[in-house]
Inverse folding.
C-alpha cells in the first residue's frame, strides 16, 4: 500500500487528522504486503489514444499476467486538450473500478504539458479544473499529483521504494503559473525546489528512489534533439535549419528550450551527488533505458504508438514500437527493467535487463544498488557509550590550511593560525549531555558535515563540523579542479570559532540564537551506522530550532519555527502575520557590526508567536561561518573590490564595502525591512551600542578557545571595539542604499493602499484593512506606514498581490516620487486624484485585468510591459547597478605593444530584463603612437522589444592589415619589404539603431552610420605607389545597415551541432563616389554535425558570398584571407566587389578531463577552404578559385569561448602560415 508522507503538503492543503488516520489505515493494510518483488509500470502520452480510456483494457491484460503488487504511473499527457471535464471524471471512474477489482494495483497520475493546454495561456486554469474533477472521484490507491500546478516535489512511500514526483511542466510553462507570492504552493521557486529535492534524497535511507518527471533531462528522441538523417533534408534546404532549431532553441515541447534548460541543469546537478537513482520520464513517444554516471534515466511514453529514437551505446534499451517499460524492485535489492510491446490492447514481453545489481549478490557485472542493500546488517546504535572519555582531545580545526609565504602573499594569510593551532576540546558525552543524545539522522548543508540528534530533555540538536568543504556547492564541472582547490583553501578566510564569540553578544541585545559548544564526537558504537564516517569529528553542538517536538520544548517558547520561504508564504497569505521589524533591524545591524556577509535567506529561521488575528515572527539568525571574515592576499583583495565579487567584505576597523557586506540579504532586507525608516535603523544601531560595553566584547572573544586569543582573538577584539563606535553612521548609509527603491507589499487578502503626495514633495504611504462592502479603509487596522522623502527615494512600488485591493492616490505637489502600482490578481480598484507640477506621469499602473476599475486623473498612466512577469511581485527582482573595469597589455607586429583600458557600466531599472542600459568606454595606445577610443551602449527594450544601440569610435589609425589591390589575381611580391602591403586609415565613426534579440542567440539589427575616413600613404607602401586607389583621400560615408542573424547552433564557440544563417544588407552614399548609391549584400550559412560519442567527431561547413555595387573605398570591399573566410593565405589577401567561399572543417575531440588543474577538452582539427573574389578589372586568367588547407589542435579550458587554437595553413602562396586564435575556428 502506498503511504503518503507529509511532504505531499507541498502545494496541497491536507487535513492533519485525516492524514494521520489515512496513514494508520494504509500502514495496517500494507504491513502484510510486499514481502517479494514490487513492480512499477511507466506510461505517458495516453492522450494519444483516440479515447484516453483505451489504456484501461491494456492495463487489464497486463494484470492478467499476475505481476503482483505494483504501481501504474501515468507520467503526464494523460488528457488531450479537447477532453471535457466530464470526460475526465468518467476516465477517473473507470480507473477507480479497475483499482477496486485489483487490490494489489496502485495508480499515480503526474502532469505534463497537455494537462496545461500544450503550454497555453490558460494552462494553469485547466490543470486546476482537472484537479477539481479528479478529486471528486477519490480512491485511496490512486495518487493524484496535480497539486494546484505547484512544482513539487512530493513523495509516495512503499516498503522498499520512495517515489518522488516533480512537476516539470511548472518549470516549462511560459505563462501564468504559481509564483511564491501567489500563496498557492508551499514551494514555488527554483532554489527551494532544489533544496527540498536534496533534502528528500539525503533523508531517504535503505530504500530505492524513483523520480517521476514528465519531461526528461536526458533523451534520445526528437524532443531531445535527436533526429534521423532524413530529417535534415525534409524539406530540402530547410530541414537542417529546423533540426538545428529543435536541437538548440526548442519549442515548448523540446527539452532544449530555455525554461527546461534550467530545469535539466538543476536536476542533473542534484542527481550527480547521488547514486542508484532512477529518473523516469514520459514525454518522448518511445522507450529507452540509459545510464549516466551511477544513475539511470528511463523514458516510457510510447504506449499509444512510438516515434523516432536514436540508438546509443549508453542505452540498455531503445525502442520506437508501441509499448511501455516495467521496473521490478526485488526484495534482495536487485532492480531490473522489462520492455513490453502493445498491439491493440494485447501486451507481450520483449527485451529485459538489469539496472542495478543486488549488493547481496556478485555485482561485478553491473552497477551495485547503493541505496537498498537488505542483506547488509543494520548497524544499530548502542544504548550506552562504550567507554567514557573524560580527558579532552587536542585537535586542530584544519591543519591543511597551513601555508608558506608565497601562498599567503597571493591567497592570503587569513585565519590560518586559528585553523592550524591545536586546541583542547572535550569529547561529547552522549549519555549525559542534555539528558542523553541519540542520533536522529544525517543533517543538511552542502558545505558542512552534520548530524541531527534528539536529546533526553525533549529538544533536538545538531552537531556540525568546524571545517567546511565547498565541493558540493560547486558546479559539477568545476569539482576537482583548481577552482575547487582554491575555494577549499579560502575556507581559511573564516574564523573557525567565530560563532562562539557571537553567541554571548547576541544575548546582550535580545536576539534569538543557538549557543554552540565545541566538542569532539567520539568514535563510539552509540553513533551506530555513522560511527566510521563521523567518529572523532571536531565540531559544534547547538540546539536545532524546530517545532516538530513537544510544544513546551519548542525553541524560545515559540508556537512555530519556520524557514524563510515558509515565512514568506505566511506573510503573503495574511496581512495579520508580521515580523518584529525592530528586532530584525537590530539583528541586521549586528551582522553589519561583526562583518557577517552571508546572511542569505537560508541562514535564518523564524520563531512565530500567536497574536490577535495572526502571528508575530522573531528572527533567529544562524550559521556564523563568515563572521569576522578576513580577506587579505592579492587575489582576495582583488575579489573584494567594488567591481569584483558582489558579496563578501574584509573584516577591518572600518567598513569599506557596505553594499557587498549586506549583499546576500539584499532581497530579505528590502522585503522584511520595507517599513523601516532611517530613524529605525539608527535606533537599532544605538541599541547595540548601549547594550554592549567594551568589557562585553572582551568577554565574548575570550569565549573562543584560549589557544587562539593571541593568534587572532586580540585582533578581532580590537576591530569590534573600533567598528561599534561608527555603527549609527553605517546604519544611515545602509538605509540610503535601501531607500532608493522601495517595495510596499500587501498580501493575498484585501488591503487599502492610501498614498498622499505632500506639498513638500514627500509621499506618505499607509496600508489599512478594507471594508469589503464599502471598499473604504478600516483605519483601526494599519499594516504599514512610512513617509518617503524625494531626497532619499527615487520610486515606490505598491504590490497588491491577491485580494480585492484599493489603491487611493491623492495630494498636490510641485515635485514628487514616482509611484508604480502592481495591483496583482483580484478585482482591484485604483483611484488617482494626485497632481504633480513637474516631470512626467508620476503614477504608473501595471494592471493585467482587461476590464479594470480605474478612476484616473492627469497624473496616472497605464503601462503595458513587454514582459508579463512585471504584472506580478517578484521578491528577488531588485538588482544593483554595477561597473567592470578591464586593463590589458597586447602585442601585434603592426603596432607593437599596446595598453588597453576600459570600463562597462551596467544600469538597472524596474521592468527591464537583465539590465536597463549598458555603457562601455574603452581606449588604447601603442608604443608606435596608435590610439583608439570607443564608446558603445545598449538600452534594453527602448521601443517595445527592440533595444536601442549606438557606438562612437575614433581610430588614429585603424589597421586594415594588408591590401594587395583589387582583384582575384593580384600579385604578392615576396621581395618587397614585409610592411609594404600593410595598410592603415584614420577613422571616426558614429552609428545608432535598433536591436531585437530572440531565440537565445538570434537577432535583427538595423542601424544608420556616419564615418569620416582617410587612407594613410606611407612611404614605400602599396597605397603610396597606387594613388589612384579609391579610399586614400578623405571620404564621408553615410550608410544604413540591416542584419538578420538566425543562430541555431548549440553555442557560438566550438559548436558541435546546429545551423546559422546571417543576411547583411547595407546601402548608402560615399562622398566623391561616381555613384549616388552604393550597396553591400552578404550571406553566410553554417552547419555543424557531430556524432554523440564521449569524444565527438564534428564536421563544420560554412558557405557564403557577397555582392557590392557602386564605388566603394578599398576598406569597404570584400576581402578573403586568414581572418576572413580563406585560411592558408595572408590576411585580406584578395579584395573584390563580390566574393564566394566555402569553409570546411573536421574536428575530433581526443579527450575531456575534469578532475585536473582545470577542466579541459583537447582535440585536433583539419580544414579545407575554397574562395575567390570578383572585380571589374579582373582578366580572364583570374577566373579560378583559391584553395587553402591545413590543420592543428585546440585546448579548451573551462568554457568553449576560451578555446585556444593553434593551426598551420598552406596554399600555393604560403608554405606554412601559423594561425593562433581564441574561440571561433572559421575566423
Amino acid at each position: 500500500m502506498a503511504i503518503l508522507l507529509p511532504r505531499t503538503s507541498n502545494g496541497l492543503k491536507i487535513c492533519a487528522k485525516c492524514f494521520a488516520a489515512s496513514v494508520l489505515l494504509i500502514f495496517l493494510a500494507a504491513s502484510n504486503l510486499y514481502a517479494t518483488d514490487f513492480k512499477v509500470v511507466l506510461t505517458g502520452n495516453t492522450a494519444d489514444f483516440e479515447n484516453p480510456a483505451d489504456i484501461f483494457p491494456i492495463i487489464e491484460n497486463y494484470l492478467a499476467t499476475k505481476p503482483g503488487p505494483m504501481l501504474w504511473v501515468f507520467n503526464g499527457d494523460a488528457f488531450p486538450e479537447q477532453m471535457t471535464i466530464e470526460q475526465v471524471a468518467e476516465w477517473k471512474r473507470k480507473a477507480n473500478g479497475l483499482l477496486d477489482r485489483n487490490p494489489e494495483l496502485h495508480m499515480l497520475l503526474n502532469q505534463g504539458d497537455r494537462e496545461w493546454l500544450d503550454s497555453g495561456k490558460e494552462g494553469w486554469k485547466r490543470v486546476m479544473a482537472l484537479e477539481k474533477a479528479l478529486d471528486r472521484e477519490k480512491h485511496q490507491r490512486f495518487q493524484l499529483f496535480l497539486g494546484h500546478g505547484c512544482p513539487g516535489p512530493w513523495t509516495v512511500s512503499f516498503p522498499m521504494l520512495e517515489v518522488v514526483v516533480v512537476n516539470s511542466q511548472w518549470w516549462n510553462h511560459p505563462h501564468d503559473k504559481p509564483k511564491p507570492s501567489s500563496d498557492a504552493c508551499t514551494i514555488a521557486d527554483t532554489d527551494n525546489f532544489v533544496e527540498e529535492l536534496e533534502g528528500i534524497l539525503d533523508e531517504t535511507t535503505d530504500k530505492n528512489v524513483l523520480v517521476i518527471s514528465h519531461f526528461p533531462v536526458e533523451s534520445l528522441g526528437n524532443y531531445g534533439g535527436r533526429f534521423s538523417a532524413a530529417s535534415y533534408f525534409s524539406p530540402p534546404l530547410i530541414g537542417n535549419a529546423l533540426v538545428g532549431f529543435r536541437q538548440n532553441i526548442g519549442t515548448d515541447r523540446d527539452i532544449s528550450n530555455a525554461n527546461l534548460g534550467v530545469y535539466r541543469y538543476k536536476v542533473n546537478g542534484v542527481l550527480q551527488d547521488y547514486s542508484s537513482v532512477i529518473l523516469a520520464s514520459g514525454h518522448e513517444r518511445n522507450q529507452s533505458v540509459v545510464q549516466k554516471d551511477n544513475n539511470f534515466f528511463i523514458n516510457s511514453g510510447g504506449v499509444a504508438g512510438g516515434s523516432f529514437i536514436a540508438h546509443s551505446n549508453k542505452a540498455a534499451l531503445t525502442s520506437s514500437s508501441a509499448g511501455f517499460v516495467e521496473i521490478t524492485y526485488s526484495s534482495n535489492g536487485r532492480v531490473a527493467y522489462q520492455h513490453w510491446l502493445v498491439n491493440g490492447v494485447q501486451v507481450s514481453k520483449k527485451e529485459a535487463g538489469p539496472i542495478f545489481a543486488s549488493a547481496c549478490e556478485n555485482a561485478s557485472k553491473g552497477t551495485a544498488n547503493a541505496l537498498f542493500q537488505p542483506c547488509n546488517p543494520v548497524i544499530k546504535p548502542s544504548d550506552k557509550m562504550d567507554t567514557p572519555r573524560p580527558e579532552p582531545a587536542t585537535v586542530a580545526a584544519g591543519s591543511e590550511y597551513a601555508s608558506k609565504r608565497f601562498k599567503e602573499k597571493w591567497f592570503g594569510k587569513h585565519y590560518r593560525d586559528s585553523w592550524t593551532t591545536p586546541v583542547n576540546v572535550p569529547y561529547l558525552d552522549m549519555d549525559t549531555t542534555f539528558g542523553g543524545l541519540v542520533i536522529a539522522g544525517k543533517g543538511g548543508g552542502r558545505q558542512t558535515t552534520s548530524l541531527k540528534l534528539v536529546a533526553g530533555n525533549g529538544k533536538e540538536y545538531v552537531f556540525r563540523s568546524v571545517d567546511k568543504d565547498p565541493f558540493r556547492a560547486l558546479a559539477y564541472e568545476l569539482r576537482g579542479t583548481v577552482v575547487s582547490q582554491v575555494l577549499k583553501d579560502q575556507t581559511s578566510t573564516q574564523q573557525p570559532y567565530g560563532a562562539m564569540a557571537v553567541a554571548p553578544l547576541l544575548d546582550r541585545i535580545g536576539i534569538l540564537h543557538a549557543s554552540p559548544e565545541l566538542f569532539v564526537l567520539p568514535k563510539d558504537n552509540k553513533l551506530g551506522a555513522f560511527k566510521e564516517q563521523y567518529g572523532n569529528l571536531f565540531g559544534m553542538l547547538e540546539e536545532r530550532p524546530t517545532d516538530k517536538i513537544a510544544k513546551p520544548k519548542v525553541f524560545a517558547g515559540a508556537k512555530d519555527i519556520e524557514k524563510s520561504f515558509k515565512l514568506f508564504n505566511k506573510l503573503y497569505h495574511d496581512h495579520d502575520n508580521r515580523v518584529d521589524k525592530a528586532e530584525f533591524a537590530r539583528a541586521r545591524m549586528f551582522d553589519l557590526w561583526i562583518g557577517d556577509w552571508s546572511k542569505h535567506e537560508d541562514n535564518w529561521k523564524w520563531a512565530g508567536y500567536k497574536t490577535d488575528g495572526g502571528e508575530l515572527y522573531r528572527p533567529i539568525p544562524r550559521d556564523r561561518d563568515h563572521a569576522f571574515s578576513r580577506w587579505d592576499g592579492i587575489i582576495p583583495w582583488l575579489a573584494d573590490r567594488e567591481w569584483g565579487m558582489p558579496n563578501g567584505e574584509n573584516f577591518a576597523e572600518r567598513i569599506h564595502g557596505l553594499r557587498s557586506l549586506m549583499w546576500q540579504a539584499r532581497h530579505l532586507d528590502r522585503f522584511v525591512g520595507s517599513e523601516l525608516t532611517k530613524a529605525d535603523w539608527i535606533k537599532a544601531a544605538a541599541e547595540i551600542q548601549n547594550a554592549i560595553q567594551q568589557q562585553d566584547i572582551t568577554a565574548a572573544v575570550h569565549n573562543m578557545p584560549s589557544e587562539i586569543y593571541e593568534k587572532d582573538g586580540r585582533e578581532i577584539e580590537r576591530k569590534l571595539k573600533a567598528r561599534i563606535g561608527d555603527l549609527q553612521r553605517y546604519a544611515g548609509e545602509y538605509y540610503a542604499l535601501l531607500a532608493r527603491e522601495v517595495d510596499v507589499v500587501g498580501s493575498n487578502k484585501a488591503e487599502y493602499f492610501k498614498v498622499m503626495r505632500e506639498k513638500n514633495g514627500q509621499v506618505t504611504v499607509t496600508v489599512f484593512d478594507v471594508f469589503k462592502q464599502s471598499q473604504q479603509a478600516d483605519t483601526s487596522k494599519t499594516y504599514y506606514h512610512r513617509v518617503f522623502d524625494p531626497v532619499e527615494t527615487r520610486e515606490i512600488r505598491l504590490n497588491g498581490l491577491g485580494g480585492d485591493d484599493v489603491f487611493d492616490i491623492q495630494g498636490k505637489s510641485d515635485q514628487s516620487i514616482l509611484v508604480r502600482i502592481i495591483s496583482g490578481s483580484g478585482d482591484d480598484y485604483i483611484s488617482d486624484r494626485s497632481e504633480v507640477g513637474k516631470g512626467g506621469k508620476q503614477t504608473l499602473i501595471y494592471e493585467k485585468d482587461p476590464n479594470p476599475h480605474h478612476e484616473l486623473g492627469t497624473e496616472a498612466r497605464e503601462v503595458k510591459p513587454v514582459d508579463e512577469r512585471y504584472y506580478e511581485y517578484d521578491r528577488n527582482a531588485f538588482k544593483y547597478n554595477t561597473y567592470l573595469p578591464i586593463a590589458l597589455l597586447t602585442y601585434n607586429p603592426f603596432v607593437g605593444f599596446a595598453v588597453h583600458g576600459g570600463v562597462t557600466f551596467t544600469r538597472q531599472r524596474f521592468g527591464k530584463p537583465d539590465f536597463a542600459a549598458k555603457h562601455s568606454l574603452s581606449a588604447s595606445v601603442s608604443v608606435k603612437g596608435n590610439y583608439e577610443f570607443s564608446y558603445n551602449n545598449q538600452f534594453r527594450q527602448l521601443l517595445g522589444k527592440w533595444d536601442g544601440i549606438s557606438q562612437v569610435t575614433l581610430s588614429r589609425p585603424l589597421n586594415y592589415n594588408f591590401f594587395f589591390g583589387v582583384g582575384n589575381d593580384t600579385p604578392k611580391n615576396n621581395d618587397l619589404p614585409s610592411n609594404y602591403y600593410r595598410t592603415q586609415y584614420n577613422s571616426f565613426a558614429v552609428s545608432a539603431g535598433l536591436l531585437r534579440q530572440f531565440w537565445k542567440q538570434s537577432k535583427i539589427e538595423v542601424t544608420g552610420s556616419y564615418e569620416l575616413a582617410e587612407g594613410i600613404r606611407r612611404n614605400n607602401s602599396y597605397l603610396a605607389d597606387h594613388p589612384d586607389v579609391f579610399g586614400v583621400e578623405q571620404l564621408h560615408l553615410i550608410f544604413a545597415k540591416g542584419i538578420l542573424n538566425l543562430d541555431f547552433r548549440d553555442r557560438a564557440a566550438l559548436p558541435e551541432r546546429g545551423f546559422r544563417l546571417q543576411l547583411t544588407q547595407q546601402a548608402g552614399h560615399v562622398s566623391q563616389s561616381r555613384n549616388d548609391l552604393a550597396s553591400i549584400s552578404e550571406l553566410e550559412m553554417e552547419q555543424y554535425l557531430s556524432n554523440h560519442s564521449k569524444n565527438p567527431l564534428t564536421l563544420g561547413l560554412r558557405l557564403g558570398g557577397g555582392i557590392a555595387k557602386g564605388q566603394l573605398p578599398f576598406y569597404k570591399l570584400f576581402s578573403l584571407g586568414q581572418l576572413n573566410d580563406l585560411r592558408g593565405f595572408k590576411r585580406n589577401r584578395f579584395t573584390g566587389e563580390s566574393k564566394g567561399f566555402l569553409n570546411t572543417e573536421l574536428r575530433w575531440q581526443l579527450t575531456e578531463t575534469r578532475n585536473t588543474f582545470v577542466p579541459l577538452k583537447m582535440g585536433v582539427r583539419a580544414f579545407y577552404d575554397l574562395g575567390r573574389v570578383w572585380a571589374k578589372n579582373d582578366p580572364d586568367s583570374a577566373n579560378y578559385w583559391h584553395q587553402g588547407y591545413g590543420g592543428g589542435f585546440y585546448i579548451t579550458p573551462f568554457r568553449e569561448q576560451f578555446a585556444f587554437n593553434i593551426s598551420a595553413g598552406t596554399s600555393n602562396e604560403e608554405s606554412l602560415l601559423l594561425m593562433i586564435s581564441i574561440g571561433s575556428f572559421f575566423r
Summary: Residues 34-356 form a domain with the Purple Acid Phosphatase; chain A, domain 2 fold (CATH 3.60.21.10). The longest helix spans residues 85-101. The first strand starts at residue 3 and ends at 4.
